[in-house]
Amino acid sequence: MIDKLEAIPQVSKIIVNTDSARIKSDYSRSGKVKVINVYQAEPQEIELELTSDRTTEALLKHVEGEHFLQLGPIFPFLKQQTIDYMIETYDKHVVNPEEGQRYDSVFSIRTLNRRYYDSDTDFIREDRPNTFVEDGILHVFNRKTFLAGGNRKVGKKPYTCGIEEIENLAIDSEENYQLAVFIDENRRRFPRVFGR
Questions:
Q1: What is the mean pLDDT of residues 144-151?
Q2: pLDDT at residue 131 greater than cutoff 70
Q3: What is the distance between the alpha carbons of residues 131 and 115, in angstroms, rounded to a whole number?
């Protein structure tokens, strides 16, 4: 993930929040990467710790700048093109918007097209509406909006970007790790996803 970010000219600094001595050592000589350890999640926060607003709040106290891209590092198949697209979208709709097109942040979503039932197995919606879920993979925002919105990356008028299903695969369990290894070793079997 760090390699992907280092290749993006618009990214001037990469802040990694970790207590890993190995990562700190590996990137100690990089002019673009800064490793800090400013926020330790409570046990009940573990699932959200990587991209939670509380983590972001702690990080912003230790970094300068106005515009930020925050991503979850546990998504190995997040594409370089997706990161580039999110930055371009932020620039187009937040930083330099056309008349009447002003948004205050950009974030990625996962689209679910499902039928939904209640606990009595009665249809809640039978027409298979799309439901959009904040996937926690990518947020592009600015300090001003974050603070004005009560320390939230998703502003009051966000622009959403759907990303491909494979990019939502998180290494958050042993099974998902093994699945990611299998996919990585067999990329040629997924030409639509990874190219030929």
A1: 93
A2: no
A3: 10
Residue 49 has pLDDT above 60, yes or no: no
- Between strands 67-71 and 105-113, the pairing is unpaired
Question: Using CA atoms, how far apart are residues 169 and 166, in angstroms rounded to an integer?
Answer: 6
CB 167 within 8 A of CB 82: yes
pTM: 0.82
Q: List, for residues 90-104, the tens digit of each pLDDT value.
A: 999 999 998 777 899
Q: Judge residue 12's burial from the number of C-beta atoms within 10 Å of its C-beta, 0-12 exposed, 13-18 middle, 19 or more buried.
A: exposed
Cβ 106 vs Cβ 93: under 8 Å: yes
Higher-confidence residue: 115 or 145?
Answer: 145
